[in-house]
Amino acid sequence: MGRTVMPGTAVQTETTADIATLIPPLRRNWRFQTLWLGSTAALTGIFATDIAYPLVILALTGSPATAGLFGFVQAAATVLCGLPAGQLVDRYDRRLVQVTAESVRVLATASIALSFALGRVTPTQLMIVGALVGAAQPFVGAARMLTVRSVVAPEQLTAALTQDEIRGSVAELAGPPLGGLLYGLARLLPFLFSTVGFALSLVSALVVRTDNAGAAARRKSVAGAEDGGIFAGIKALWRDRTVRAVVVLLFFLNASGAPLSLAAVYRLTQQGAPSWGIGLAMTGSALGGLAGAGLVRTLHRRFRPGVLLLGVVASVVLLVVLLGLVSGPWMIALVLFGTMLGIPSITVLLDVLIFRQVPDEVRGRTLTSVMTVMGLGIPLGTGSLGLLLQYVGGTGAMEVLAAVLACGTAWAALQPGLRAARWPADKAEAGAGAGGATGSAT
């Protein structure tokens, strides 16, 4: 962009080449790699149960609307806890916040596995656990992301975030087929697997310690009325027209894109696909994310941020329509592959345009504010999709989602601030490490 989105960008006085000789490679940063491994285990478990939850609910109730309601409850809990999570991680020890929230996820998911062992699983229990796991997510996510920033040099942050995108794709690649396979063996196994993943993430948070010298200063800042309180992040991002357009467009993307997994599971179930085949189809998203992680540096160099964002979202519109027309695990996997190709570039784009420009004392609230506004689309989209699947079928539901996303894209394309947006002045230096990110992850 032609100007800084938000205040707080550090001034660099050394060249990239000088810095590279002083900072060890990211692969040797044991604290980051420990957090990465723990988070990968937890995320793999989440993707495994993302297959298992709708399969269990459909088996218990036979109602896609109820499966959609589960997704709505879980996502709504995440959204409602977003702003409080930002306030908490700005005020208190971020490691303690992550450990506490991760413990909630371990206990909640373990209760499902235990209930299966006792033969007492009910839809109500599934809804409660979904709400608890969803509510814990913003606390874990915000605390972990800010911890990563404290253990990674600023010059390696793009590389670290790109490796994080690979983490998500690896988890999405392994989780769904594992979830489908484990569900086919015994219904409790995906939930037991997820419990172990959350436990490993909990251990990684306990092992990695950071310098908390700034915690007291953050606490004092947050306690003051002058910083805007819990809504400081919302106020800051909403004052910038470009950032506002980005966040609103991603709200529409979440509303139409987040329910695609449920749509694919439902359609394949209707087609009589086995649980392992459904899990296999979900790996299309993961492969798309992995391929997209390798495109981050190239896309960021060739396109301005607004052009890149609009192009990616417009392509998703067409792919959502296509998802309602194809059938079979392989074709659905191919469409899901396409929907994820541009997502890693958008994720890193958010960090470059917004999160790196914010002072540390309000970074947690800014991060969770952005995620909250964008995340509002997830419960709305998921809950609506359940009803659409019930009453208009798979093809009609996809057409409605595509129409909603097309409207959001058209609105964003008319915003002059988004079309004219440029990368921040320090983006070239910050992105210098992105090329090595893929290698560091392998």
TrEMBL record:
It is a multi-pass membrane protein. It is found in: Cell membrane. CDD domains: MFS_MefA_like (cd06173). Signal peptide: none annotated. It comes from the Bacteria. The keyword Transmembrane applies. The chain crosses the membrane at residues 35-59, 65-83, 188-208, 245-269, 275-295, 307-326, 332-355, 367-389, 395-414. Keywords: Cell membrane, Membrane, Transmembrane, Transmembrane helix. The keyword Membrane applies. Pfam families: MFS_1. SUPFAM superfamilies: MFS general substrate transporter. InterPro entries: MFS, MFS_trans_sf. PANTHER family: INTEGRAL MEMBRANE EFFLUX PROTEIN-RELATED, MAJOR FACILITATOR SUPERFAMILY ASSOCIATED DOMAIN-CONTAINING PROTEIN. This is MFS transporter. It comes from Streptacidiphilus alkalitolerans.
